[in-house]
Amino acid sequence: MKLVFRAIFLLIVLISLISCDTNSNQTRTSYVQIEDVDLVSSGGQQQGKLLCPKTVNDVIVQLKEVHQASSEEFPEMTMVGVLSFIKENNITTITNLLNRLPVHYRNNFSLVEHTKGEGQSSLKFPRIVLFGSDGTFLMNISTKADDPKYDLLDCAELNEENGTWEFSQFDFTGDQPKLHVNPPSCIRCHGDQPRPVWGTNMDWPGVFGDNEAAGPNGEALSYRHALRMNEIKEGNAYSDRFEFLEWSDQKLRSGGIRRIANHAFGAELLVSNMAMGTATARGVFKRIELHTQYRQMREAMLLLGYEHMVGNILSDKEKEYLKTLILDKGGKNGTLDELFLVLGIDTKEAFSLGTLAKEEKPKTDWSLGAGDLYEQVLLQVLYDLSIDDRNIASLLKETPNTPGIFGCDHLGKNIKEVIDFKMLHMHQLLGKDRYEVNKVYYSQDAENIKEKVFIPIYAKLAPYLKEKIQVQNQA
């Protein structure tokens, strides 16, 4: 059965124990199935200083449950879940709610000195942005007591069913907290089809850790940011809203980066972009997947994706043929952006996370690190198409991968395994489960899709796609 992200069911099929002596060291391997994706929890294998998965489906740690339902102690991190938790536990302040958040929201945070949005922030009273382990539920918290927005908690949630974002506000100004769903004030920043607003890789204006000094390092704490963070860590916060945060034991220094607590990699701002970027791209993919024209246009999208990533891979006649396909679907030209628009996605809004939707010029090249949102969506389209098209699945298996996966040379024998690995770590492991895996392992180049997936298979995939939709006949 085809894997869909919104429906994930857990099945423990086997637990194998090697060694019967409970007092001795044991190697325990558990096998978990997420629909048709079998996961292995092997404990991993050491390669240099890095603990690596043994196979591309090895999550190393044992996951008790996938998409584990929140216990009574913590809220389920959705709008409905948080609202229910507030009511059931008689929570009347934002601070009380923050102190009850699950662990993967206590460590995955950024501090913002200057914000483009509503509300106030400063060096002494920065806003706290929580992005969680996977970027699917975001929170924006004021720490300045005289801020008019102090008792308003802005949140965003990705709907995994239909790919849309809901931007809502928990209002703690009265005796009983209320939830304002999609208030009009959100549209100015986040757009008519709202999406998060966050800095692109190497450029996070106003965020602690965005390099204020000249130089090539985009993520680097300034002296004053490091000083203020250390004050907050030591308890000189001037607000009780910082108390729930979990910090690593590092001493923060000018020119350094903040390492996320309980995280194998930990570079805060790079991790934040991975979380928000993958969530955004998954939402876009879900929206186009639900469009009636999507299945007919997958091959064309991948060919135009190559033209976007590499350039000059299509002849003028081939471009004209693809343009005709898009025009037949109601488009106005033959570009990748226009095809997205035909499928219901305005990339100028959906991909421009670094700009205010209604006030700034769009920049669609928002970067996770080694790749952009176009590449994220194209990866999911290729993964989806390979499930339906055995020929594509075969050529992915036939194309060898060298030299392994970042830091783990034995991983990913072929491009299909590389794709499966990237899909697992960016789009299938979510919530508490991603947090548990990332404590011991974090794929540092998962977002590198162009060089690790599309370039190696170009010589086989591009001709096949052209032949399949008869583009070659137009050359």
Question: Descriptors for this entry?
Answer:
single chain, 475 residues, alpha+beta, 2 domains, 3-stranded antiparallel β-sheet, 11 strands, metal ion binding
Short description:
By secondary structure, the chain is α+β, with helices and mostly antiparallel strands.
Question: Layout of helices and strands, plus pairs?
Answer:
Blueprint: E1 10-18, E2 27-34, E3 37-41, E4 45-47, E5 50-52, H1 79-88, H2 94-98, H3 103-106, E6 109-112, E7 127-130, E8 137-141, E9 152-158, E10 165-171, E11 178-181, H4 185-190, H5 223-233, H6 268-289, H7 298-309, H8 316-328, H9 336-342, H10 347-350, H11 373-388, H12 390-398, H13 415-428, H14 431-438, H15 449-454, H16 458-468
Antiparallel strand pairs: 1-2, 2-3, 4-5, 6-7, 7-8, 8-9, 9-10, 10-11
Helix pairs in contact: 6-11, 7-11, 7-16, 11-12
Q: If you had to describe this structure to a student in words, what would you say it looks like?
A:
There is one protein chain. With 475 residues, this protein is an alpha+beta fold. The protein has helices at residues 79-88, 94-98, 103-106, 185-190, 223-233, 268-289, 298-309, 316-328, 336-342, 347-350, 373-388, 390-398, 415-428, 431-438, 449-454, 458-468, and strands at 10-18, 27-34, 37-41, 45-47, 50-52, 109-112, 127-130, 137-141, 152-158, 165-171, 178-181. It has 2 domains: 79-242, no CATH class; 280-474, no CATH class. The chain is built from 16 helices and 11 strands. Helix 6 crosses helix 11 (373-388). The longest helix is centred in the middle third of the chain and has 22 residues, at 268-289.
